[in-house]
Every structure is written in C-alpha cells, then in structure tokens.
Design brief:
alpha+beta; Nuclear Transport Factor 2, Chain: A; 6-stranded mixed sheet; 3-stranded antiparallel sheet; about 40% helix; about 30% strand
C-alpha cells in the first residue's frame, strides 16, 4: 500500500512537469538592441535585474537608466524646485500683505485727523456683514457703523487727534489677518484711549476691516 502511494505521487509529478515551461518575461537582448538603435553603433552589455533592466554602453561609460526612471527623477527635481520657490516667495507675500494693512490703518488715522469720517470709513468693507462691537452693543453693516461715528463724533472738537500704536498683524491665511493695537485721542479736556481687535480680509479693492471690536479704558 505504501509503495502504491509513492508510485502514484511520482507519476503525478512527472506528468505535471511536462506542462511547466520556463517563461522569459524579459525581452531578448536583440530586441532591446534593435529598438534602441545601438546594434549598429557598438557592442553593448546587457544586464538583467529582478525589477529593472539596465543597459551599459562601453563608450559612454555609464548606465543608461530606463525612460520611466529618468521621468520620475525629472518630476522629483521639478517638485523640489517648485516647493523651494513657494517657500521663498511666502515671506515676501506676507511682508507685502502686512505693509498693505499698515497702509490702510495709516490712511484711516490721517483721514480722522483731518475731520474726514467718510475717508476713515474707507478702511472698512462696504458690506452689510461688516461688524462693529463697542461697549455693550453690536452694529452690523457699513452704513450703520458710519452712522455711529458721525453721531458720536459730530465735530472736530470731539474727534480730537487720533493715533494708533502697538500694532500687531498676524496673517491667518493669504486673505485673512487679525490685527491688535491701541488707539488714543488727544482732545482739549480729555485723552480717551483703549484697545482694538480687527479682522482684515483681502477683497478685490484691497485689504478691508470686516470685524472691529474696540474697547475704551476707564478714565
């Protein structure tokens, strides 16, 4: 019985081996030489690797990398160059945005000090969603904020001389920034002052205030 099993097994292996033929999945040397046009130029040595075929040209003295590998290398180099360009350009863009925001604040200060509330309001976004928070009230809309300023500061005596200080500008994104600072009015009988938090947004017309939270210190 044991002998019969061995006989059957060896016979099965022998039969199966007839159907197993080695398959060459790589192209022949002649095929590569003809396709590359090197057959008529000079002798070429051909090496096979498990995952990559490499051709070594004796006159060039270096390995010819397949086109897919060269393409991948070119893509990697291009990506590195683009990343380096973006990284180097970011500080310049940030500095430009900060300068533009400071320019808006400077223009507001100058407009206020010449008694031009409309010019001062140019620093705000002309939108119904513009928000101004002061004391215990919230005002929404550019027109509403403007009406508040014209009512509270109805003449030059009340407006006094405005100055901003301790300005801190933090970019949250290429189009949004948070600005912290101090404000102060120099008037004949008093010197009110306080702090403000502004949210600037980059709009088609430039950087504009979309949210203003201003508080006054106690006298």
């Amino acid at each position: 019985m044991q002998k019969s099993r061995c006989t059957v097994l060896s016979g099965w292996i022998g039969d199966a081996s007839r159907f197993m033929r080695p398959v060459n999945v790589f192209p022949s040397v002649e095929t590569i030489l003809h396709s590359s046009g090197w057959m008529r130029q000079s002798p070429v040595s051909y090496c096979r690797f498990p995952m990559l075929q490499v051709i070594r040209h004796p006159h060039l003295g270096r390995t010819q990398v397949p086109i897919t590998a060269r393409l991948a290398c070119a893509i990697a180099i291009t990506a590195c160059v683009l990343m380096a360009t973006n990284v180097s350009a970011a500080p310049a863009q940030n500095a430009n945005a900060v300068a533009q925001i400071r320019s808006v604040l400077h223009a507001q200060q100058n407009a206020w000090n010449r008694g031009d509330i409309n010019g001062f309001m140019n620093g705000y976004a002309r939108s119904a969603s513009t928000v101004f928070i002061s004391e215990d009230s919230i005002r929404r809309g550019w027109e509403t904020v403007r009406a508040r300023y014209t009512q509270k500061y109805s003449d030059r005596r009340k407006m006094g001389t405005l100055s901003f200080s301790d300005i801190e500008i933090n970019l949250l994104s290429p189009d949004v920034a948070v600005v912290l600072g101090r404000w102060r009015l120099e008037r004949a009988k008093d010197r009110p002052h306080g702090r403000f938090t502004l949210i600037f947004k980059r709009l088609p017309e430039g950087w504009r205030i979309v949210h203003d939270h201003t508080s006054a210190a106690r006298p």
